[in-house]
Amino acid sequence: MKKVHMSLRTQNILRNIFAVLVACLFLFPLYWIVVNSFKLDSEIFASTPTLWPHSFTLAAYKDQLSNLAVTLKNSIIIAVGSMILALVLSVSAAYGLAKYDVKGKKLFLLVFLVTQMLPASLVLTPLFLTFSKMKLLNTYLAPILSTATISIPFNVLMLRPGFLSIPSELYEAAKIDGCSALQAFFRVVIPVSKPTVITAACFSFVYAWNDLAYSMTFNTKDAMRPMTAAIYTFMNQYGTKWNSIMAYGVLLILPCVIIFVTMQKHIVEGMTSGSVKG
Fold this sequence. Notes:
Elements: H1 2-36, H2 41-44, H3 59-99, H4 105-115, H5 124-133, H6 141-164, H7 168-176, H8 181-192, H9 194-210, H10 213-218, H11 227-230, E1 235-236, E2 239-240, H12 242-262, H13 264-272
Antiparallel strand pairs: 1-2
Helix pairs in contact: 1-12, 3-6, 3-9, 3-12, 4-6, 6-9, 7-8, 9-12, 9-13
């Protein structure tokens, strides 16, 4: 028995070592971005790469302070607006497809699934023509609507199994207590499905925050562009400011890292909600 126990312990140690090595491999590009943001351009292009800056400097971050206010505001408005719109539509749609006998339910789900297989660039041209006729170009509404159209199908497919796993007795008990259908939805269904809803909110926010194609296509004015599109300002005829790009990249991914670190518990629970039934 002792030999078997040692064997299992050795296997666990080897698995942990392998997991750490894989994690380091995938996290190294992120580490390289952070480290290079504290270097001078001369050190970045040195013949011998350095894993830690010899001349530690915050100059690249100081250069961002003057340009960050406008682009950060644009990113927040677009990401929060898209998240709210996607949540309102996807939560109600997912609950309707889960709890009500909707004609063509399978067809709706199939269409939502197919949209996840198509590249976002496929709808750029029709959306551009539509927004142009509606005079929505160079406004916040254009990227908000376009990113929400991509988030909604994914949210519906993720939220529906969670709603299916909610016992119908809870909903019926709320109606017996005098709640209307809308009150039961907000007082019973939403609190029970809190992890799944939070997960959908996080993914909607992150997708809109990281969007580049829609933001650059529908907003041609520099004053309306978010952080993802403004990164091109560091590439001009005089060369590329790599340390500024690295510092800007760190600031760009920082909100996403904070969201997934603080909401990790809810995201894991939300992704596995309804995985047995549905």
